[in-house]
Amino acid sequence: MAGKGFPKEDGVSICAAMEIHRLWTFASDAEIAAVWACGFLLVAGIAGYVERRRGKRRDIDRVGYVPWMAIFFASAFIGAGLLVMAIKGMAAG
């Protein structure tokens, strides 16, 4: 029975969602920390871009209320810390 979600003859799954579920189920703590680190670094990159864009605005009187620089530093700090720990954990095995 090789329907959707069932394994093929050689044991490889057909459904991509099952592969993602298998990845998250059997991932080590270091791999999960690396994924979280990438997410935090992505948020830091977006916050840095928005902060730069806000600094170059034409209408100086339009002040934003979101502290993009603080979000950038917090996300970058957390992401870098998680990435260092993830690399250390992956190197240890």
How would you spell out the order of helices and strands?
HHH
Described by strand count, sense and barrel closure, the largest sheet is: none
Stretches where pLDDT is under 50 for at least 5 consecutive residues are none
Radius of gyration: 20 Å
Helix content: 55-70%
Structural class comes to mainly alpha
Q: What's the mean pLDDT score?
A: 83
Number of helical stretches of at least 4 residues: 3
Strand content: under 5%
* Overall number of strands: 0
CA-based shape: elongated
How far apart are the first and last residues' alpha carbons, in Å? 37 Å
Question: What order do the helices and strands come in, and which of them pair?
Answer:
Layout: H1 16-26, H2 29-55, H3 68-92
Helix pairs in contact: 2-3
Could you provide a short overview of the structure?
The chain has 93 residues and is mainly alpha-helical. The chain has 3 helices and no strands.
Features:
mainly alpha, elongated, single chain
What does it look like?
By secondary structure, the protein is mostly helical. The chain is built from three helices and no strands. It is elongated, with a radius of gyration of 20 Å.
